[in-house]
Design goal:
The structure holds two protein chains of two kinds. By secondary structure, chain A is mostly beta strands. Chain A has no helices and nine strands. The chains are: A mainly beta, B mainly beta.
């Protein structure tokens, strides 16, 4: 059972927009700790996709966006491409646990 | 450009220990923290702990307290993570990642090291 809750799977057609949610609690996202998102293609290390809720590292397309509201955060992917098929993880800091916590991951399938 | 290169795959027996290395290039481990994350087969990411070579401070996840040790050799800019008293459910890919703190996340990852625990 992950501290941050994500939908296990999601799918969308090429060109569509999908949104992946990440729900936390008052000891992590609700305590104003930032949320970061990672993309992981099978067999490869995770890659930082969004940091600080909404910021993209250099090289990440603007098709990827982040937002937050209260104890939740969301990752939006517009103009879906086959290359976007991957697992996506959210991450935040948890003051009660005293360390990083991750969501369980969302497997995105591009139909 | 920051890069982390980890040691190769290992096979261990239950009860044994392993030590993974993580060599940093393009930046100094003294100036940034390092986090260790593991991923069991088909499972999600699990935070194991954090270390900083600046002060030698460590912060281990409660689950691994007493079984894990994270160290840094600043002369070679290499970090190490040792896990002891291995069980079959320690079979996982172990990653090191440059930790930029609460606001910036883990911006550089090693390629991962598969550790298989099997009798």
């Amino acid at each position: 059972q992950s501290v941050l809750t994500q939908p296990p799977s999601l799918s969308g057609a090429p060109g569509q927009r999908v949104t992946i949610s990440c729900t936390g609690t008052g000891s992590n996202i609700g305590a104003h700790y930032d949320v970061h998102w990672y993309q992981q293609v099978p067999g490869v290390a995770p890659k930082l996709l969004i940091f600080g809720f909404t910021n993209r590292p250099s090289g990440v397309p603007d098709r990827f966006s982040g937002s937050n509201s209260g104890t939740s955060a969301s990752l939006g992917i517009s103009g879906l491409q086959a290359a976007d098929e991957a697992d996506y993880y959210c991450q935040s800091y948890d003051i009660s646990l005293g360390g990083w916590v991750f969501g369980g991951g969302t497997k995105l399938t591009v139909l | 450009q920051a890069q982390l290169v980890q040691s190769g795959a290992e096979v261990k027996k239950p009860g044994a220990s392993f030590k993974v290395s993580c060599k940093a290039s393009g930046y100094s481990l003294v100036t940034h923290g390092l986090t260790w994350v593991r991923q069991a087969p088909g499972q999600g990411l699990e935070w194991m702990g954090w270390t900083t070579a600046y002060s030698g401070k460590t912060n281990y996840a409660e689950k691994f307290q007493g079984r894990v040790t994270m160290t840094t050799d600043t002369s070679t800019n290499t970090a190490y993570m040792e896990l002891r008293s291995l069980r079959s459910d320690d079979t996982a890919v172990y990653y090191c990642a440059r930790d930029q703190g609460y606001r910036l996340g883990l911006d550089t990852w090693g390629q991962g090291t598969l550790v298989t625990v099997s009798s």
